[in-house]
Design a protein that fits this description.
456 residues, alpha/beta, globular, 8-stranded mixed β-sheet, 27% helix, Alkaline Phosphatase, subunit A
């Protein structure tokens, strides 16, 4: 693959869904992908992967409602994930603790065979038509694992730095070098297009850029910029961020983070794809990566492979990770991949940084920590060196899109309960105090959501 043909790398990282939950269905039915490691229909396999809880076995089952929120958010910090994966024997995790762990979640309903736990559920293309479209027209990576068996912040730091100073969500988010710094140091143009709050508003040293800089822009400006930016001014790396369920926001979350329904995420991904394909010339040189930061407590049957991650210098934790995290959905969406591609090679979130390093780094390198990590690169997925000349069109989804779920935004003044929610709220409070915090792109949030109540 001639890297000079690649002009734009786009990164979209969603929240908290597993591979089996969102894409496992693609190994079922008459149109099954024979080379995709997903769900199986035979009873013996279902019995073998079923999770037991209080004398009942809960196998994977079909979820048919993409519109309404779940009752609870499955726990998914480091200790919870260890329980979900179970104790490894011969290097293989049993992956049998998802139901028992979900049962401890605040708001989780009584679990019975008639009311099975949603963490064992899976969607199909009927419920998730946009990701189904991505899988048909582009590439699926069926061995893409979250970098760490840990939660949101550690995995997003791995994706954006190649290392993480933390192993659980913390407030505030500790400062460490991000890919933003790496790109800036090399003169590479980059931008973040975000709905509501960008994730790294939780890292205090980025507030000036978020509020007053030109590289953090509202998502609604993406389509205009794609169509109107001169080629020599376009960003070479674009990060697109949804509305995070755990952040203060107005309307439904669009990141797929439970308890939010997946319809919001499907609509968001559709809009991101349509925006990036508005200019055929720009699209001809684009590689768009869509993945999920971690599995969010949802079942996956594939045991994560052994891959040791030691605490880096200055880390806030001491115990190393001995394996990758749980498998997550991942797509490479580009004219440089064939439709219906299933890439079976081992990848994780640092595969994005490896790709960025190959394209923009000195000698094709990103960093020692990233380069030495025993996973492949997104570059390995590209299998159409000359690029496809046509842009696949999403089928009509009018009926699916017009059905609106109830708003999932937090009620103004509600005290946040989790470190991630507190981190977003603290960032919003810091925006309110910042000299550039008023009269700008966050006015609606600053007006709608009051300051963080003292002591919460």
């Amino acid at each position: 693959m001639d890297l000079d043909r690649i002009k734009t790398i786009v990164v979209v990282m969603m929240e908290n869904r597993s591979f089996d939950h969102l894409l496992g269905y693609l190994s079922l039915g008459p149109d099954a992908r024979p080379n995709l490691e997903g769900l199986k229909a035979d009873a013996a396999w279902r019995d073998n992967v079923a999770n037991a809880y209080r004398g009942q076995n809960f196998p994977p089952f079909l979820l048919t409602d993409p519109y309404h929120d779940m009752d609870a958010d499955p726990p998914h910090e480091r200790n919870h994930i260890a329980n979900q994966m179970g104790v490894a024997a011969g290097g293989v995790f049993p992956m049998d603790g998802f139901v028992a762990n979900y049962a401890r979640a605040p708001g989780a309903s009584c679990l019975t065979p008639e009311n099975p736990p949603p963490v064992m559920g899976y969607f199909t293309g009927r419920e998730a038509p946009v990701t189904d479209f991505f899988g048909k027209e582009f590439a699926i990576c069926d061995h893409w694992f979250s970098s760490l068996p840990a939660g949101t912040q550690p995995n997003r730091l791995m994706a954006m730095s190649g290392y993480s100073l933390i192993d659980v969500n913390q407030v505030p988010l500790p400062e460490q070098e991000l890919v933003y710094d790496w790109l800036t140091a090399r003169g590479i143009r980059w931008r973040v297009y975000h709905e509501a709050m960008p994730f790294f508003a939780m890292m205090p040293n980025w507030l000036d850029d978020v509020l007053a800089g030109d590289r953090f822009r509202p998502f609604k400006k993406l389509s205009h910029d794609v169509e109107n930016d001169p080629p020599n001014e376009r960003p070479q790396v674009i990060f697109i961020e949804p509305t995070y369920t755990d952040s203060p926001h107005i309307g439904p979350g669009t990141d797929d983070h439970a308890p939010s329904a997946i319809k919001g995420g499907q609509a968001f991904l559709l809009e991101a794809y349509r925006d990036m394909t508005r200019d055929p010339d720009m699209w001809a040189g684009t590689v768009m990566i869509v993945t999920y930061d971690e599995h969010g407590g949802f079942f996956d049957h594939v045991s994560p492979p052994a891959l040791r991650t030691d605490p880096p210098s200055g880390a806030h934790f001491q115990k190393p990770f001995e394996a990758l995290g749980v498998r997550v959905p991942a797509f490479v969406i580009s004219p440089f991949v064939e439709g219906r591609t299933v890439f079976n090679g081992l990848l994780d979130h640092t595969s994005i940084l490896k790709f960025i390093g190959q394209k923009f780094g000195e000698g094709g390198r990103y960093s020692e920590a990233v380069d030495q990590r025993a996973v492949g690169s997104v570059l390995d997925v590209l299998n159409v060196p000359d690029g496809r000349s046509t842009i696949p069109t999403v089928p009509p989804l009018t009926e699916y899109l017009k059905r609106e779920p109830p708003p999932a935004g937090r009620v103004p003044g509600t005290a946040p309960q989790t470190p991630l929610q507190r981190g977003f709220q603290d960032a919003l409070d810091a925006m309110r105090q910042h000299p550039a915090g008023r009269g700008g792109k966050f006015d609606d949030l600053l007006n709608e959501f009051p300051a963080h109540p003292a002591g919460t």
